[in-house]
Amino acid sequence: MSKQKFLKSLIRKQPRDLLLVIGTGVSAAVAPGIPALCSWRSCIEAVLGAAEQLEVLHPGDVAEFRKKVMKERDLLVVAHDLIRKMSPRTGDTKPNFFQDCLMEVFDNLEQHIQNPVVLQSILRLMERGTMVLTTNYDNLLEIFGQQQGKPMESLDLKDKDKVLQWARGHIKYGVLHIHGLYTDPCGMVLDPSGYKDVTQDPEVMEVLQNLYRTKSFLFLGCGETLRDQIFQALFLYTVKNKVDLEHYMLVLKENEDHFFKLQADMLLHGIKVVSYGDCFQQFPEYVQDLTAQICKEKSPDADQVDSTTLLGTSCVDCAKRKLGESGTDSPKRVKQSDMPTLE
């Protein structure tokens, strides 16, 4: 295999300038023995299986939801409907049987960590100031981090004080679960209406949106995240001038036409789509190598421009302006291939 190429604009980011968005692909790589971690479809199917075993959902409803899982393209809608079906008729999401089913599905997670390479890479970045949020219900990262002696903390959006601390960079090993956590009895959330207190709180929304404006988000294992209503409500639809931002998404390149269309579409959101390979098994090694590139001291050959780096003169102007504003970096380090941090 040829030597892996990385976008210079990405590997020259400081870890503290990145925010990792972790999706189901990370859990699937770490614990392949739990199908429910691999995709929304697998998760819903596993929850339905648990609901059947625990007898908390009418067999007719189980059959109906299984049909929906096969036909429906937007699985987040199916998951949301399933939570509602398992909740009181008052419309309140707590208490409900959905957590019981997830706890059944995700039982003894720590015993299923088979390939911790991606988690090791994430922790390495967190040590150096990278922030982490996730759409996942599982706490594999926190479990693994605690095993490594790190003071990991699981956060959710309902704890305003904690969210503000995290967003301001005061909880180094905090992981923000924007859908909640399967161990938390306060309820899962898949719809922005469940977070009205958050989305209507100007202070919280301002600090969260400021992250999208000032950090480079790096999406790992995130197939569905940009279609996720909560992520959209918090970041995508509320931040203006997204095309001026610089975020990154690692994806599997199964189909060239689809990949390059996705690339073009995502640039409108300020997101650069990057392929980690044409096979999911390449994902952990790519993340490991990418992390090593970001964390290492810059070597002399890092100044060479490779074919994956496409830049215009405006980027150089931005970099110069940024240097002029900060006055901290030496001008001699600015090269055609350097990208500014986000403004």
Automatic annotation (TrEMBL):
Organism per entry: Taeniopygia guttata
Record bears the keyword Zinc: no
Family designation: Belongs to the FAM118 family.
PANTHER family: PROTEIN FAM118A, PROTEIN FAM118B
Higher taxonomy: Eukaryota, Metazoa, Chordata, Craniata, Vertebrata
Name this polypeptide is given: Family with sequence similarity 118 member A
Comp. bias intervals (Basic and acidic residues): 321-336
Keywords per UniProt: Acetylation, Phosphoprotein
Keyword Transmembrane helix: no
Signal sequence, renumbered to the chain: none
InterPro entries the UniProt entry points to: FAM118
Pfam family, one: SIR2_2
Region (Disordered): 321-343
Source species, domain of life: Eukaryota
